[in-house]
Design goal:
Helix content of chain A: under 10%
Structural class of chain A: mainly beta
Distance between the termini of chain B: 76 Å
Oligomer: heterodimer
Shape of chain B: globular
Largest sheet of chain B: 4 strands, parallel
Chain lengths: 387, 315
């Protein structure tokens, strides 16, 4: 923990230096014209809301955004993204991204400050409307509120090696990773450390492996919320939508592995992508023993079998310890999703997904069958897709 | 610990310290030493070939090949690693790489890879559509104009001159040598262009149906007219309905050939050719040069394109 104390002020002083450098940099008028603007509309219809799901039953506006990005002075780029979504029939608005990032640091370093999505795992940094499935894996929905973005700082280093190696540290305020704190300890914070490795095998295969560690100084509440563990719960009350993580703890380890194949590296006509992610959370709260841990895994595969058609399967496991005062109850959930998507170009996609939740213990509303139809439309410029 | 042996100036007697010291020296060399052969990251092989003409001893990395659609490249970890190590990146521009190059730059953390040499900045582009905003129904619109500018050999002269200026700035000590190689290439290339233009005279006025605007510059150079595009919208794969409409048009005015490029699915073009009764040949043309990064490849590519088109037109 002491190391985190030292890290945050160090990053803060770095950000102050960066801000000074930006103010001094010539903000050329000719650079302003390369700012780009875009919008994404994500509409979905769900026959039955999923347990821990991010989509309401019926018609819903999903993760839709307005985004602006471009150079800020000569030394940095910036992005601003406002997100709109409906939950329980109400329109919710949020500034999801507001960050600036260095472009001129030497020796492979890139620093970012502001509000942004953490780079833990494979999916978290990606905008949800770019996902291959209508809902994020159970792992993200249970442990990271679907898509974890927060106010903080990041420093990444890419190694000068013939294969890809990147190391990164982040420090966040941490207001999103616990649903509600047990007590407001002063100076809350979360630190992450991420390592990523990757490369090609021949002309057709490429891979990426990541290891992430999260230290959360905040303690989650010792009492559970609706959804999970409902044995003395009134289900008629107004369902409260969760943005924060449902299950948390002080220490999280994650691993992710992604593999992509395209014949001769030409992914336009055909591609197979597959991935695995796993997370383990320990040190849940003051009452937890070393045997109390949350675990989740996800395996997915997507096949682009024609330039404009993709199909995919994903299976998710979740095993949690649901806090209940000074003790825990076991919870578990399995989920299986199958999807078919039509993508006539990169500006629109229409997706049909069938999801089955089963083997539920401690979750009161698993969806034994749910059919979801999702339509995503993009206008203008949007960020290039990472691997 | 590594650092102790360095700071206390102990002679690294045992093997571990020796390895440590060697690692630190290697790291220092990698991070700081500029005295290496110029490293060039070329987004497409045609730019690698031009760079080779100007700096033959450079270390070249070619990110894509003629079998790949340059609009749709995965921002693969291997590409990030190569962009991290490069001294200069040479790309097409005009949004051709906008779906993947920014993702590579962000992760590479290499300030030298931020000042990309874009060929499109030095060539007047055809079909510009200023002010166009991409919508879900418009296809992949390039407001700047058609980015496939390398298919006109005259454009390569414009690009190689600008590239020589940039490389000379990068390596001032080699300024004179780069200029000399540029001069020699220009005269060789101008001769070739004159020769190709004489041979291609019979192609003038011919009509083709083609998939995408990949060879837009080639058609304009040779005076060939692209009657129809197999894509219903730029970048969108051919649909049965669109092909059916094309068939009606092409039956009225039969083209000299149906042209698709090496990275495209040949089936829609093959279907059209069959429906036209086998009288119209399907030509599958390589979209660019090989990845050996040599001047000969540039010449061979144009030579091959001309040869194929001439053979098809006399049938």
């Amino acid at each position: 923990m002491a190391r985190h104390h030292a890290l945050i002020p160090r990053l803060a002083s770095f950000a102050a230096l960066l801000a000074g450098a930006l103010a001094a940099a010539p903000a050329g008028a000719q650079q302003a014209k390369s700012w780009q603007f875009g919008a994404v509309l994500d509409v979905a219809h769900t026959t039955r809301a999923l347990e821990l799901g991010g989509r309401d039953q019926g018609l819903q506006l999903g993760h839709s955004d307005l985004t602006a990005s471009g150079p800020l002075g000569a030394l940095a780029t910036a992005r601003l993204t406002a997100v709109f979504a409906t939950h329980d029939g109400r329109l919710e608005k949020e500034i999801e991204e507001a960050w600036l990032e260095t472009t001129r640091l030497p020796a492979g370093f890139v620093a970012r400050a502001g509000r942004f999505a953490s780079q833990i795992g494979y999916l978290n940094a990606q905008h949800p409307h770019a996902d291959d499935f209508v809902e994020r894996p159970l792992l993200y929905r249970a442990f990271f509120g679907g898509h974890w973005n927060d106010d903080g700082m990041r420093l990444n280093w890419t190694a000068p090696t013939p294969f890809f190696l990147q190391l990164g540290v982040e420090a966040f305020r941490g207001k999103r990773l616990v649903e509600e704190t047990a007590e407001s300890t002063g100076n809350p914070g979360i630190a992450t450390v991420v390592a990523k490795f990757g490369g090609d095998i021949g002309a057709s295969h490429s891979w990426l492996v990541g290891v992430s560690h999260i230290r959360n100084r905040r303690e989650a509440t010792t009492e559970t919320f609706d959804g999970a563990h409902g044995h003395k719960h009134d289900h008629d009350h107004d369902h409260h939508h969760h943005h924060g993580a449902q299950f948390s703890g002080h220490k999280t380890w994650m691993i992710d592995a992604t593999w992509k194949w395209a014949p001769g590296g030409n992914n336009r006509d055909q591609q197979v992508r597959a991935g695995f992610e796993a997370a383990r959370i320990t040190d849940l709260n003051r009452y937890a023993t070393s045997r109390d841990r949350h675990e989740a895994q996800s395996i997915w595969a997507v096949w682009r079998f024609r330039p404009d058609w993709e199909t995919g399967l994903r299976t998710d496991w979740l095993r949690v310890r649901i806090p209940h005062g000074d003790h825990f109850h076991s919870g578990r959930l399995r989920e299986l999703s199958a999807m078919l998507a039509w993508k006539p170009n990169h500006m629109q996609s229409l997706r049909l997904q069938l999801t089955r939740q089963y083997d539920a213990v401690g979750f009161s509303r698993p969806a034994s069958r749910s059919v979801q139809v999702q339509y995503v439309l993009a206008f203008g410029a949007h960020p290039a897709h990472p691997f | 610990m590594c650092w102790h042996s360095v700071h206390t100036r102990r002679i690294p007697s045992d093997g571990r310290h020796g390895r440590c010291a060697r690692f630190l020296i290697w790291l220092a060399l990698v991070v700081t030493t500029p005295a290496h052969a110029l490293r060039i990251f070329a987004c497409e092989p045609e730019w690698a070939a031009l760079a080779r003409v100007l700096v033959p001893h450079a270390t070249l990395f070619v990110a894509t090949h003629a079998g790949q659609d340059p609009h749709h490249i995965e921002a693969r970890p291997a590409l990030i690693a190569h962009l991290r190590l490069t001294d200069i990146a040479v790309c097409t521009g005009a949004s051709l790489e906008s779906g993947w190059l920014p993702a590579l730059q962000e992760r590479a953390g290499n300030p030298r890879a931020r000042d990309v040499f874009f060929a499109a900045d030095h060539v007047p582009l055809i079909d510009p559509q200023p002010g166009t905003i991409g919508t879900p129904w418009s296809g992949d619109v390039h407001p700047e104009g058609n980015p496939h500018l390398h298919a006109d050999p005259r454009n390569l002269l414009l690009v190689v001159r600008a590239l020589a200026d940039r490389l000379a700035r990068e390596r001032p000590a080699e300024d004179a040598a780069i200029r000399a190689r540029l001069g020699a290439f220009e005269s060789r290339w101008q001769q070739r262009i004159a020769q190709w233009e004489r041979r291609a005279a019979p192609l003038r006025g011919k009509r083709v149906a083609a998939q995408h605007a990949t060879f837009g510059y080639l058609w304009r150079w040779l005076g060939i007219e692209q009657l129809a595009d197999l894509e219903p919208r730029p970048g969108m794969p051919p649909t049965p309905g669109h092909l059916q409409r094309l068939l009606t048009v092409l039956r009225g005015t039969p083209p000299a050939a149906i042209v698709v490029s090496s990275y495209q699915d040949p089936r829609p073009g093959r279907w059209l050719a069959q429906q036209l009764g086998g009288t119209v040949p399907l030509l599958i043309l390589p979209s660019t040069v090989g990845t050996e990064a040599a001047e000969a490849e540039l010449a061979d590519w144009f030579e091959g394109l001309l040869q194929t088109l001439l053979e098809a037109s006399v049938r």
